[in-house]
TrEMBL record:
Residue ranges of every copy of the Peptidase M20 dimerisation domain listed in the record: 214-309
GO molecular function per UniProt: hydrolase activity
Family membership noted in the UniProt record: Belongs to the peptidase M20 family.
InterPro entries reported in the protein's UniProt record: Amidase_Cbmase, Bact_exopeptidase_dim_dom, Peptidase_M20, Peptidase_M20_dimer
One Pfam family of this chain: Peptidase_M20
UniProt KW keywords: Hydrolase
The protein's name in its UniProt record: Zn-dependent hydrolase
CDD domains to which the protein is assigned, alphabetical: M20_bAS
SUPFAM superfamilies in UniProt: Bacterial exopeptidase dimerisation domain, Zn-dependent exopeptidases
Source organism of this protein record: Sporosarcina soli
Length: 422
């Protein structure tokens, strides 16, 4: 494993960023597209063939001796949230590139083709919808009007697609058949404190929590703060505050099952110190690996909306952005990773993922697995996000081992036999 080269690859991608604190490489922006073009050149230099599908996923293919066999795939994403760190998603792509380089340097051929996939729009930061690329590939994009989604600058998703020579009307062309895949595995930072806290090297993901996300619009009456008595007010912000606090209470009641609830966005329209807020907007994320537990929080959200609307004389509309079910990783892949860790004295833990990942959509297409490496101080979506190259190296070695087992490494004699028979 060339750790120095792997570190340099991670640092290089970090140079592709818009202005701001940390990394700002949002989906479908020029910074992200420039980074993708750079990676395409790197994979082409390794002899891989490249295609970009209808949603912008980059698919780099290393051919196998049996081209008709289903592919063994690995990858992740390189788009970021606002003011991000440089490891989230990126290490899964850079580890895959390093594995391809090692296979070439060691002249290793496989029976199955290998694909590296750079998924588009994994983060929800820009358009409030996550894992767009893998959802499109798996044929599970939600039945919402994608054209109506806008970023904070008012740019629609359709406009962002056009800027990238893509057509939102054609996203169904990204769908792939389950038979085209043998397996998919993804390496990722944990984005939490557990591995570091327990002094472990690897997390083997057992299940991925599924997010349910809402955008809530609250309309009251904007009025003068000095001349409007308290009992005459229709305060949109206070309605939003009640909803936010109820989300916290509901999620805490289900915390023993790992369910969480977050109000990540709260915006006041035309706010000023001397105006009773007339419009407020919330974006809410509820997730967990226990479907019934998550549903309890959703039901309490619906109940508080009805109560606040009536008690505070407000009009509240609630738009469902996504509703996904928890996904379990394939037990055979989990077991394979466990065996490899034990054989190599690697300290590991089988654990759920609280964050959503492209792997949760790929699990609908093929046997899927996921590995975590520790995050220092549990930080992610933060410029201080950090994982040591040695820890990333351990994950990359495990990933390589699985890829070779799954793609079936051939000896020279077996290669010659396969070539003669073909």
């Amino acid at each position: 494993m060339n750790l120095k080269r792997l570190q340099q690859s991670i640092e290089k991608i970090a140079t592709y960023s818009d202005a701001g604190v940390g990394i700002n490489r949002l989906a479908y922006t020029k910074a992200e597209q420039d980074a993708k073009r750079y990676l395409i050149r790197q994979f082409e230099d390794e002899g891989l063939t490249i295609r970009v599908d209808a949603v912008g996923n980059v698919i780099a293919r290393r051919e196998g001796l049996r081209t008709e066999l289903p592919v063994v795939a690995m990858g992740s994403h390189i788009d970021s949230v606002y003011d991000a760190g440089k490891y989230d998603g990126v290490i899964g792509v850079m580890a895959a590139l390093e594995i391809i380089r090692l296979l070439n340097e060691e002249s290793i051929q496989t029976l199955h083709p290998i694909e590296v996939i750079i998924f588009s729009c994994e983060e929800s930061a820009r358009f409030s919808i996550a894992t767009v690329g893998s959802k499109a590939m798996a044929g599970v994009l939600p039945a919402i009007d994608l054209h109506a989604l806008t970023d904070r600058d008012g740019i629609t998703m359709a406009e962002a697609f056009r800027e990238n020579q893509l057509d939102l009307e054609q996203v169904e062309r990204a769908v792939r058949r389950p038979a085209s895949f043998k397996s998919y595995v993804e390496l990722h930072i944990e984005q939490g404190p557990i591995l570091e806290g327990e002094r472990l090297d690897i997390g083997i993901v057992s299940a991925i929590a599924a997010p349910t996300r809402y955008r809530i619009s609250i309309s009251g009456r904007a009025s003068h703060s000095g001349t409007t008595p308290m009992n005459y007010r229709s305060d949109a912000l206070l309605g939003a505050a009640e909803i936010a606090l109820e989300i916290e209470r509901a999620a805490k009641a289900e915390a023993h099952k790992g369910t969480v609830g977050t109000v990540g966005v709260l915006t006041i329209q035309s706010g000023s110190m001397n105006t009773v807020p007339g419009e407020a907007y919330l974006e809410i994320d509820i997730r967990g690996t226990d479907g019934s537990s998550k549903q309890m929080v959703i039901e309490r959200l619906q109940a508080v909306i009805s109560r606040v609307e009536q008690e505070r004389d407000l009009q509240i509309s609630c738009t469902l952005l996504s509703h996904e079910q928890p996904v379990h990783m394939h037990p055979d892949i989990v077991h394979d990773f466990e065996e490899t860790c034990e054989e190599n004295n690697i300290r590991y833990k089988v654990m759920p993922s609280g964050a959503g990942h492209d792997a949760m959509n790929m699990a609908g297409l093929c046997p899927t697995g996921m590995l975590f490496v520790p995050s220092q101080d549990g930080l992610s979506h933060n410029p201080k996000e950090y994982t040591s190259i040695e820890q990333i190296g351990i994950g990359t070695r495990l990933l390589k081992d699985f890829i070779l087992k799954s793609a079936i490494v051939t000896t020279n004699a077996l290669q010659n036999k396969c070539l003669r028979s073909s």
